[in-house]
Amino acid sequence: MPATEQYLRNIKRMHVVFCISVIAFCVATLLMLYKDHNDEWRDYQTTFTKARTLKLEAEQQKAYETAAGSQEEFIQEKNQLEDKRNSLQSELENSNEQFQTLTQEVAELDRQYKQQGSDVRFKRADRDVARANYDLGVRDNIPADELEGLKAKFDALQAEVEAMELAWEQKETELNNKRDALAAITKERDEVSENLTKFTADIARLDDTLDSIAPQGAVKRAKRAFMEWPIIDGFNSHMKVVQDWLPDLHVTLGMTSVARFDRCRTCHQGISQFGAGNVAEFPHGEVDSDDPADWVAENKFPHPYSSHPRPDVYLTATSPHPQADFGCTICHDGQGSATSFLNAQHGPNDPHEEHEWAEKYGHFHNHFWELPMQPERLRESTCLKCHHDVVELGVNPEFGATAPKAYEGWQLIRKYGCFGCHEINGYDGGERIGPDLRLEPTAEEAPKYAADPNMIPGELRKVGPSLKHIAQKASEEFIAYWTEEPARFRPTTKMPRFFGLSNLADAHGANMSSVELAALARHLVNQSTDVTLDTPADGYQPNAERGKTLFSERGCMACHSFNDSDFEGSSADFGPSLTETSKKLLPGEAGFNWLYTWIRDPQRHHPRSKMPDLFLDPYSTPDGIVDPAADIAKFLQGDGPQEFPTPEYDDEAVKNLVTEYLAGKALTNDQFQQFWETRKYPFGPEQIKGDEIALVHDGEGSPNDEQWNNMLLEYLGRRSVSRYGCYGCHDINGYGSARPIGTALQDWGRKDPHRLAPEHIHEFLHHHGQPDGSSTADFVNDAVRKAKTETFNSEQEEEDGLRTAFFYDSLIHHGRPGFIFQKLRDPRSYDYKKVETKGYTERLVMPKFPISEEEAEAIATFVLGLVAEPPAPEYIYQPDEQAKDRNHGEILLQKYNCVGCHMLEMHEMEYAIEEGGLATYSPLPADHARGVKELLKWRRPVAAFTGRTHEVDGESLATVKVAGLPYLAADPEEAPEDQIWAFDSWEPIHVLSDAELASREEAVADGELEQILSPEDVVMPGSRLVIPGSHLVSRKAPRGGHFAEWLVEQLIEGRANGNRYNAWQMSPPPLFREGDKVQTDWLYRFLKDPEQLRHTIVLRMPRFNMSDEEARILANYFAAADGSPYPYQSLPQTEPAYLAAQQAEFTAAHPERAELNTYLEESWGTLNEQLCIKCHAVGGKEFKAGNDPNVIRGPNLEYASQRLRPEWTLMWLYNPRWITPYTSMPAPFPNNQQQFKPLFEGNGTDQTIGVRDALMNYFHLMERQSHQPAAQQVTAN
Amino acid sequence: MTRFTFAVLLPGLALIALGCDLNKVDPGGGASSDSVVTVRSGSAASPAAGGDSAAGGGATTAAASGGAPGKLLGTIKFAGSPPVLPPKATQGNAKDPAVCAKDGDIPDESLLVGSDGGLQHVFIYLDKEPAGATAESFEIGVFDQKACIFTSHSFLALAGVEFEVRNSDAAAHNVHTFPQLGAVQNFGMEPNSSTTMSFNKAERAPIQIKCDIHPWMEGWALILDHPYMATTDENGNFELPELPGGSYNVRIWHERGAKNGQLERAKVTIDGETRLDREFPAGDFKL
Known about the structure:
The complex is a heterodimer. Chain A is built from 45 helices and 21 strands. In chain A, strands 12, 14, 15, 16, 19 and 20 form a six-stranded antiparallel sheet that branches. In chain A, a hairpin with a 2-residue loop joins strand 7 (427-428) and strand 8. The longest helix of chain A is centred in the N-terminal third of the chain and has 70 residues, at 144-213. Chain B has one domain: Immunoglobulin-like (Sandwich), CATH 2.60.40. In chain B, the strands form five sheets. A five-stranded mixed sheet of chain B has the order 7-13-12-9-10, with no helix packed on it. In chain B, strand 9 (173-178) and strand 10 (186-189) form a beta hairpin. The two termini of chain B are 38 Å apart.
C-alpha cells in the first residue's frame, strides 16, 4: 500500500492535546517541586539565620564600642592606623636606601638559601643510596675490595653532604642577620601593622561570619539566594537537612535494630551553639513576640532556635555528652529521622499543651510510633539507659543533681522496698542492662550464689523488720490490728495498706479479709521462734527520766523521732517513730526485756538489722551503776502496752476461703467435702509439698474444734503470706526460697501497652478516682480549662492539676505512664466492677503506699526508664575508680544514715559586702607565717565572690559565699538594721575577682593558686565573719548533721553551760574534708570496729552491721570525695631521708641543742612537755584529770601516727582553729611566745614541726625511750 | 610588769579618727590588724561627724537634752537571799592538784552577792559611744591566772589595745576567748609565763574567756571601743567616767542574767552626778 498524506488522528487536535498535557505535566512537576521544596524546616532555618544575623550585628556593634566607642570612630581609627602603616611603608620604600638594599639582599640570600637547601636534600639522597649499596654489599657478602669501593663512594658523598650542610647553615645565619638588620629598620612599621591586626581582629572575625550568612555584596547575595532554589539546593546549599549519624547508637524499629540518624538539628539550629566558656549563644526563654529582633534584644530565644541548657553537661565537646557522639534521640526519644514537627513525635507535657500543639502543628497521639519523645515531666527516665548506678544523677560533686526526679524515684523504691515484690534485675546473664534493685540472697539461697560465680547476688536488705521472733515482742491481737491498717497505729509508717481498700469493700470481701487478718496473725505467731533475752542486773532500778536524757543524747534521735515537747525540732525519720512503741509490746517484763535486748544488741533479734550497736553498756558513776539500755527501755515503755481487740471473723468465711484454695485444686471437690467432714487430710505429710501440710493433724484421732480452727487459720495464714508476698519485706521462717510475687520491672519501660490490663479504669475515673471519691475526669477537664484560661490559683495547683491531667490522658490512651501512675495512686482501682466476676483470691493484692502524687510521678519516671536496652558499652557511664568509690560510698552514707549525725557539707551563707569589706587575713600574733603559707598550699582556697550582686539600701553590692558553721544567729527581736550574724568559716577563701585571678594566672607561668595568692588575698579558715542581717542574701542548709545540730542546742541549754563550742565538742563532729584528715586503712578499721576516740562527746560512734567490702568503700569514699590519695598513704616523716634533712636543719638552726639531742629527741621532748599531757594521754603516761566530770580530754595521741595524715596533723598543730573552729585545743606553740626553752630554743615553728614528726614516729620513739636509762630520758620534767 | 595606759587623744586627732571607719562593724569580720583606738573628745566632735555608724557600735547618742555633765554611778543588788553555789572544784577533784585549789576550794564566782545584797561582776556600759564625751583615761588591767583562777572574773578591755596576759601558775594554761564579732583566740601558755594580746573588735556584750585545760576557769570580758564601762565591786558599786549631760542607753549585764545575760537596758539621763541603782529579783537570773 502506498504511503498517504493522511493521519490516523487529526494532527491539529493532537497538537492541542499535546500542548495541554505538556502544560499539565509542567504544572504538576512544578507543583511537585514546590511541595517538595516547601518543607517547614526551611522556614525555621530562614528565621534562625535572621536571628543569628541580628545577633552578630549586635555583637559587632558592641565590638565597635569596646574597641573604639562607635563604628565611625573605629573606622576612623582603623584608617589612621592603615595610613600610618602605609606612610611608613612608602617612606621605607622611597627614601631609605638601606631598606632597599637590605630588602634586595634578603631576597637574594633567601633565594640562595632555598636553592642550597634543595641541593643538600638531593645530595643527601645520593649519600643514602651509597649507604644502601654498601649495606646490600655487606648482606650479599661481596668481595672485600668491591665493598671497600662502595665504602669509599659513601665516604666521598658523606663528606660532600657535610660540606654543603655547613655552607647551608652559614647561609642561614647570614640570612637571619640580614633579616634582623631589616627588621630593625622596619620596626616601627611592623609594630603599627601588628597593632592594626590586633585592633581589627574581633571585628574581622565577626565580619567573616556575617559575610558567610548574610553577605553585603550583591553578587554574593544573589549566589546565596540562587543556592536556595529547588534542585540547585541539592548542590551543597547552606539550606539543608542537618544529620547526625550515630552508627553505634542503635534504635529498635519494629523488629530490627538500626543506627540512629538524628535530624533534629535541621530545625533546632541553635541547639549546640555555644560561645567561649561554654556560654549558650541562644539562651532559651519565651518572648512575647515573633520578631527575631526582639529575641536578640532580650537575649531570649524560643524553641526551636534556642541553645541546649546545661552546656557543661550536654552537647559541648568538653561535656560528658558531646552532641557529635550522642545526638538527640538517645536521650529524648522520638523519631530522629523526621524533619517536621509532627513526624518527630514531640511529647506534650500535659493535655493543655497537647491542645495547643494540635491547633498549631496538627499534633495528634500517634499510636504507631512506639517511642514518642519523652514529655518534660518524664524526661529524666532515659538517663537510666546508661546511668545504671543512678546515684551520680542525684549527688554529683561536678554537676550537681542532673536528674533529681529519676533519682528521687530510685530513692523511693529503695525506701518503700518495691523490689521485695517487683524484682529489678540489672543483669541479663553477666551483662549489665540497667539499674539493679534486688534483694540480697536469703540464708537459704546464699550457698547457691556462693557456688556459682556467674550468679550476681542482689544487694538490698528487706525494708521491713524481721518477723522471725515476733511472738516475743507483740501479741497476735496487735499483729492483726497493725496489719489491717498500719497508719492507724503509727501515722508515719512506710508500711503500705493491704486491707480495707476499694476492692475489699463489699461484704464478701470484708468477711474474707477479716479471716485473712486473723490467719496472718496466727501464722506469724506460730512460726515465731525465741531468742535469748537479756535482763538488766538483778535489782537494777531503771530510771525513765535518765532514760529520756540518754535517749536524746546517745544517738537514738539521729534516726528515730519521739513526740515530746522536750524534743522539739527533731524530725528524724530514718527509723520508725518510737512514740507508739510501748503500746505494741507484750505487757510486763516480757515486753521490757525484749526492748532492753533489742536496744543493747539489735542483731540478736535481726542479724541484718541496720540498727547499729550503740555501745549502751552499763557504766559506773559516783551515784552507782547506770544501765543506759534499761533506762531508755523504761523511758520508751512510757504508759505501757495497749490492749488490742481479738480478731473477729466468720466461720462460714473460713470455710469459703479454704474451699477457694483447696477444692478443685489440691483436692478434688469430693476429696474436699470428705476432708471437711472428717477433718482428716487425704494425704500424708510425705506426699504434701505446699502449705497444706498445716492441715495434717499430728495428734491422735481427729482434731478437736480448737485444734481444727488453729489448723485452718495456720493454713490460711501461710496462703495469705504467699498471696500478699509479706516475705518481700520481712524475714519470716519458712519463706527463704520464696520468689517475689510481682511483675519484674527491669524492662517495664518497654512493656507492650497492649499487655497492660486497664480493665474498667476509664469508667472508674469517669465516676471516681480522686482521693475524695469525686471524678478524675471532671478534675482533669477543670485543670485543662484553668490552664487555657490561666486561672490557676498557684503554681502548685497548676503543677498538681496538670500532672493528674497528663497521666489521666496517658491512661485513656493506654499509655504506660498513665497505667503505672494510677497503679501507684490507687492500686485496687483496676478491680473496679471486676470483683463481681472474680474469685476472692483472684482479686488484686498490690497495697496502697503512703506516697503523694508527686512521688508517684518520680517512681513512674524511674520505672519508665527501665528499658533493658543498654547502648554500646562506650556510652554506658563508667566512672573512674575515684568516682566509683564516691558513688558507692554515697549509697552507703544513705544506707547507714551517716548523714543523720554527721554534717558532710557545711552551712553556706551568701551575703553582700561593701567595697573591700571582706576583711582578709591579717595574722594573729600567735600565727606562724610558715604555717599560713603551708595551709594555703595544702588546702586550695575557693573563690569568695559569686559574680552576683545584691541590693542594699539602693546600692548594688557584690556578694560572697562562705561555708562553715553559724556562731550567732540574728536576734529577731533586734531592730532589722542592728541584726547581725556571726559565722565561722571552715575553708580558706580568696577574694579575687575572676578577672583579677585570670590576670595573675597569666603573669605566673604554670602558676599554682598558692603561688598567685598571698595571705592578703585570703580569708583563713576559722575566721569569724560578721554579717549584717540586711546584707544576708541566702543561707543554704548543710548536708546532714541534723541530729548533731539539734543536740548542740540541747547541750547549750544543759551540760555545755551556754558555750556553743563546748556543745559542738560533745556532739557528732562534721565530717568536713575527713578524707584529708585520716588515713584510709585506719578509717576502714574504725568503721568495722570503732574504738572510743573522743572523750568530750556525749555519745559514741556506733558499730554498724557493715560488711568488709562496705567498710572499704566507705573508707575510700572520704578520700575520693576530697581528692586525697588512697587507699595507701606513705608517712615520709618516718623515712630516713626526711629525718636526715630535718636533722641537718636542726643542727644548722640550733647548734647548741644539736650537741645535746638529736632532732627526734628534741621533738619527743617537746611532745612530752607540760602541755600536751594536760589533755592527752601521751608518751606512755596516762591522762590525769582528778574526777571532775567537766574536764576536757583529747584523743589518745598514741593513735595519731596510724590515724592521721601528716599534712593535716601539721596544720592542726599550727592552729587547730584552721581545721575545726570550735575545738578546745589551743594553738600549742604560739609564734609570739618563746615557750618550753631550751627545746628548739623556744622557736614555736620548729617546735610545731618537731611535735608533728614526734607523733608520726611515736612508736619508734616510745620503744627507744623504754630502752634508755631513766636519767638520760629527754622528757622534760 | 607593763601597764598600758590609755590616754586622751587631742581633739584634732579625734576628728580625723571620726572620719575613718574604725568603729564601724566590719561586715567581713576576720581579724583586723587595726589597733589604734580612739576616744572622742567632746569639744571637737560635732554631732554631725558622729553619725557615720549605722552598722553599729559608733557614736550616735547625741548629747541632746543638754543637762549638766556628770558621772554615772550606782549600786546593783540581788533581791532576796541568793542560792549557795557549790565550789567549782575542790582539792579532792581538781586537775593539777599541786597547783590548783591548793589553798582551798575554787569558788563559783558566777553569783557573788555581798552582805547587803550588792552583786559583784555586773557589767554596766553604754551601748553606743556618746558623742561629745571626754574620757579622762582608761587602764586595762593585767589578765592573770593564779592558782587556776582568773584573777579578774570580770575584765574590761578596749578593742585593738594590747594588754598583758600572765600565767602565774606552775601549770600550763590556755587562754580561749569566745567573742561574738571579733576573732577567736586560743593559745597555750607555759607555766610562769607572760605575753600580750588584744581583741580586734568591739563586742555588743561581755564575752566568755575560758581555760580548756581547767574547765572551771571562766571569766568574762567586755571589749568596747570607748571607755564608758564598769563592773561592780564586791558591794555592787560601780562608777562610769564623766559624761556630758543628756540621755543614754545603758546596759546592765550579768553572766547569769536570764535573757542572754542582759538584766536591763536602761534609759538614763545625765544631769550632774547621776545614780543608777537597781535591785533584781531572783527571777531575772538563771539559777
